[in-house]
Write a structure and sequence with these properties.
Length: 476
């Protein structure tokens, strides 16, 4: 039998960023208890939480069975849910990638059972880990830096860590630093769910809603923690286009396949507004082989809402917009089927639909026109698409749509500037007379041209376009 160890890990930070400490309280039923701590001068709370988990695991034999308790949802959900997606996108846009990669490395080949526990709730193990973390901070008064976080000692962290670095962006909601919210009402006693929401709020920040009251944020999270809607950061006036993509359990909406992910980003006047919606959905059936395409597992989706629970919110966001999708009939058929089951409504009845695949076929007949091919054809900067994802594909499609339909206006001339430019060009055209010289080919050039035409006909057993054009001219 493998020995079983219990670990309580915690981090602390005075300032976030600021001086930080980590603590690991390890219980070995045979050898007793072990306490570890350390600190760093310039760090964040999330880095200390991660370091505590790393150092605690390292201190245990590789053959041991570990039960780990952390009061950080950032650590627990990151290592159990989000890390697969992070690795699939090669850690792009992930905060603290050095520590996440280290934690991933030290957990490989180990048997670990992760648990979230509410902090400062009187649990003996968690309280001791918290004391050790603060002891790590205090140790910095005599020690310039902790030997466990040397890589972070001279690196000033200039921004708050954001819990929503998960590749899916839906497992929490936007919030601000706890320091920005201390004057708002504390609703942590309302229910056990609100207590966990409080923990999520304390670990995330988003500059876009700095002024949002804490009570309002909690209400938004409590209403539906799995719906991620970002507000516009670039307001525009005009018709809404929603660049949309879905992921599903299969190809046949008529044969019980269901939607598991929806992502859409808003565009007005050919400019992204910053607004988007992103939702993961429990399909109420196994994802099957489709997991090989999108990388979304049954395990990940089991706690996600069913479509009926998010239908009203999603329909309200999409309603009235022009939906732009690649092979749009696929996405619209699935959405129509889902909305009919949940709301007895059809999205196609309230939205105009534009299919970028149809546009691509008209512009490039007889060629392949997948999203990947179009990205290469229009020289759009590549993104990692090891696994498909609805929001990622929507972002890529936005670039493709702009490129196929004329691209963005690079000079950003306003109407008056454009009017002046057109007037000047018209004036030049009216007052400029140019004789266009005619340059005739030489005898040697004509002979070389005829030789090429003859060679082409011998090789291909048909006339070239030049020979055909010459024949047409002679006939006329």
């Amino acid at each position: 039998m493998h020995k079983q160890y219990t670990l309580y890990v915690d981090g602390a930070c005075k300032g976030n960023p600021g001086k930080g400490g980590w603590g690991a309280y390890i219980i070995d039923p045979e050898q007793g208890k072990k306490e570890l701590f350390g600190g760093a001068e310039d760090t964040t709370n999330n880095r200390m939480e991660l370091t505590a988990a790393i150092e605690g695991i390292r201190a245990c034999p590789r053959s041991a069975q570990l039960t780990i308790y952390t009061d950080s949802n950032y650590v627990k959900r990151g290592i159990t849910e989000w890390i697969t997606g992070w690795k699939a996108k090669n850690w792009k846009d992930v905060k603290n990638p050095d520590l996440w990669q280290t934690l991933d490395e030290v957990t490989q080949g180990r048997e670990i059972d992760w648990h979230w526990i509410k902090g400062h709730a009187g649990h003996e193990g968690n309280e001791r880990a918290d004391q050790l973390a603060n002891k790590g901070v205090d140790s910095l008064q005599s020690t310039p830096s902790s030997q466990s976080d040397k890589s972070n000692d001279k690196k000033k962290v200039t921004e708050s860590d954001w819990l929503l670095d998960d590749p899916f962006g839906l497992d929490a909601t936007d919030s601000t630093e706890e320091a920005d919210l201390t004057e708002e009402a504390d609703l942590s006693e309302e229910s056990d769910h609100l207590e966990e929401v409080e923990e999520v709020i304390d670990e995330i920040s988003d500059e876009s809603i700095i002024s949002t009251p804490k009570a309002e944020i909690k209400a938004q999270i409590t209403e539906n923690v799995h719906i991620k809607i970002t507000e516009t950061t670039n307001p525009q006036v005009g018709e809404r286009l929603l660049i949309l993509d879905t992921e599903t359990t299969g190809f046949y909406y008529q044969d019980s396949d269901r939607i598991i992910e929806v992502g859409a980003i808003e565009m007005i006047n050919r400019k992204l507004t910053g607004s988007s919606i992103h939702i993961y959905i429990n399909p109420e059936k196994p994802v099957g082989e489709s997991e090989n395409i999108h990388g979304i597992s049954d395990e990940f989706l089991k706690d996600k809402p069913k479509f009926a629970a998010i239908a009203d919110t999603l329909f309200a966001y999409l309603e009235g917009a022009e939906i732009v999708a690649h092979n749009a009939s696929f996405d619209i058929n699935f959405l129509d089927a889902e909305f009919e089951r949940a709301l007895d409504k059809k999205l196609s009845a309230v939205c105009k639909v534009t299919d970028t695949l149809a546009i691509a076929k008209r512009k490039h007949p007889g060629q392949k026109n997948s999203l990947d091919i179009l990205v290469k054809r229009y020289e759009i900067p590549p993104r990692d698409r090891t696994f498909h994802g609805a929001l990622l594909d929507a972002e890529i499609l936005a670039d493709v749509y702009l490129a196929m339909t004329g691209g963005q206006v690079s000079l950003h001339l306003d109407q008056q500037q454009q009017k002046v430019a057109n007037t000047q060009n018209s004036h030049l055209n009216q007052n400029s007379q140019h004789d266009i010289p005619l340059i005739f080919p030489t005898e040697s050039e004509l002979e070389a041209h005829q030789a090429w035409i003859n060679t082409f006909k011998e090789k291909n057993e048909k006339d070239s376009l030049f020979a055909f054009a010459e024949a047409q001219l002679l006939e006329s």
